[in-house]
Amino acid sequence: MKNKAFTERQIEIMEAATIRIDKFGIQELTIKNLSADLNLSEAALYRHFKSKNEIMLGLLTYFILEMNERIGQIITNEEEHPSKLLKQIFTSQLNTFVNKPSIVSVIFSEGIFQFNKDLSDKVAAVMALMQTNINELIVRGQKEGLYSKVLGADSITTIIMGSMRMVVLKWKLSSNKSNLASDGKIVLNGLLKMIEK
């Protein structure tokens, strides 16, 4: 994706930061370490980002923009069955994680960011983006009589997101050895069978 909000060098720095966090943890993300990873001087890195926090905010912003574009292309198809769109959204999301596994270490690190409001707000925005899109599809499915109304759309959305989060966490804890796309598909199909009429 060509994102005009960031330069190619900034994207390179953010991707290197993600890889460092994934390999060594957030505590090892320092300007000094990142400069060494990129074979840049610290002064050169500071020309692109003023601080470690600015790198993290950029990284999360970049992911939100990319995710919004990806999901936006899927959800606009109002003729398609909501279940098919949900499957496409989660397939897209899980494939992104498989192709860039280090991003999971950042997005799923909201506990690490709890004392930094800006970073916490960005992680919350990632979750809110998914939640809004899933909820819209559940509401639509219920209005069209495709999904049960035993539970409200908000509750169903929470159950789906929580279940998929668990699938991603298990994959992460297995050192990415399980089949994330396949496991996610099985869980989502099971959840959809539970709500479909």
Unreliable spans are none
Q: Which bin fits the share of residues in helices? A: over 70%
Rg over CA atoms, rounded to whole Å, is 18 Å
Portion in strands: under 5%
Structure annotation, total helices = 9
Largest sheet: none
Amino- and carboxy-terminal Cα gap: 38 Å
The helix-and-strand class reads mainly alpha
Overall pLDDT confidence: 91
Number of strands: 0
Principal-axes geometry comes out as elongated
Order of helices and strands: HHHHHHHHH
Blueprint (SSEs and pairs):
Layout: H1 8-24, H2 31-38, H3 42-46, H4 52-75, H5 82-99, H6 102-107, H7 117-143, H8 153-173, H9 180-195
Helix pairs in contact: 1-4, 4-5, 4-7, 5-7, 5-9, 7-8, 8-9
Protein traits:
197 residues, mainly alpha, 9 helices
Account of the 3D structure:
With 197 residues, this protein is mostly helical. Helix content is 72%, strand content 0%. The protein is built from nine helices and no strands. The chain has helices at residues 8-24, 31-38, 42-46, 52-75, 82-99, 102-107, 117-143, 153-173, 180-195. Helix 5 runs antiparallel to helix 9. The chain starts with 7 loop residues before the first helix and ends with a helix. The mean pLDDT is 91.
The gist of it:
This protein is mostly helical and 197 residues long. Helix content is 72%, strand content 0%.
